[in-house]
Amino acid sequence: MSDSRDKSLPFDVDDADLFSSVGDDHVLSSAPIAPPASSHMTSPAPAPASTRRVGRAHQPEAFLDIESPGRSPQRVRLQGPRFLLGGERADLTLDDRFVSRWHAQLSQEQGAWVLEDLGSHNGVYLRIADEFVMEDGDEIIVGAQRLAFRTGWDAGPTQTVPTLGAPKLPTAPRLVEYVEGGHIRGIYPIVDSMLIGREGADLNFPHDELLSSPHASFERHDGQFYLRDLISESGTFIRIRGAVELIDGDCFCVGRTRLQVRYQG
Q: What are phi and psi of 25, to 5 degrees?
């Protein structure tokens, strides 16, 4: 994939409100609702967020199937070399209070569509398949839960002179649970493995109707933690870093909105 693509955007980069259309009280805490039984969305096996695929020899028609809570499903055609998702000035306006003005971008590269987060407040989450190698700070969405995987210390305030205190000791791997507004509700240590689900797991969220039992797992192998979706109904999503090529059937979340890319031709 070429790194020379044009990343210019159709807005003034000096706009102070560029990525602040979502206030601090509108921090994403839950995933979009699961597609209803009558939905035209399918449940393919999308690739992990870190995967890049080989481009296609030709560019087929591409569409986005869109589902938001309380709204009828819709389909839009992807057009142009670049397709912006966000507020009212974007190519696709998402009526979602957790979506930033310029939230994400889909662009054509080597015959495929590439997904990028444009520095949005709440991020973009891609549904994973198989296992995904976790890094400190990775965020996931399972059911209606937003969890962060942490192995290091939280960043303190930026100061010229460091704050006096005892030397930092190694910290235990853990999951941090966030609720709306960005507040921490719980911190859950991970030893060597952890099952997440609605019931019967190591970490249970019994009131979350979007969770399966079990839903996802963490496993430690050779000093690294791996996240795996356990064939859950609503999927497991990882917040993307950088650009990700999309294949037919890939599903991703922007705010509480779920989108699925479909190729035809």
A: -85, 0
Domain that holds residue 101: 59-122+239-264
Give the torsion through C-alpha atoms of 27, 31, 36, 37, to 10 deg.
Answer: 180
Nearest of 123, 124, 106 to residue 115 by alpha carbon: 106
Coil vs helix vs strand at 50? coil
218-233 CB burial, b ≥16 within 10 A, e <16? beeeeeebbbebeebe
Distance CA 66, CA 83 (A): 15
Helix (H, G, I), strand (E, B) or coil at 70: coil
Q: What is the pTM of this model?
A: 0.79
Residues 65 and 101 in one domain: yes
Q: How far, in whole angstroms, is CA 107 from its chain's centroid?
A: 18
**CA-closest candidate to residue 250, choices 149, 128, 123:** 128
Q: How far is CA 79 from CA 41, 59, 76, 92, 107, in A?
A: 21, 11, 9, 11, 9
pLDDT tens string 129-179: 889 999 999 999 999 999 999 998 776 667 788 788 887 776 899 999 999
Same domain for 252 and 219: no
pLDDT digits (tens, 9 = 90+) for 32-90: 444 444 445 555 444 445 444 444 455 679 999 999 888 899 999 999 899 999 999 99
| CATH code, 134 | 2.60.200
255 and 187 inside one domain: no
252 belongs to a structural domain:
yes
Q: Which amino acid is at 216?
A: A
**What's the CA gap between 233 and 46, in Å, rounded?**
14
Which residue is listed with tokens 């990525």? Answer: 19
Compute the radius of gyration of the chain from its Cα atoms.
19
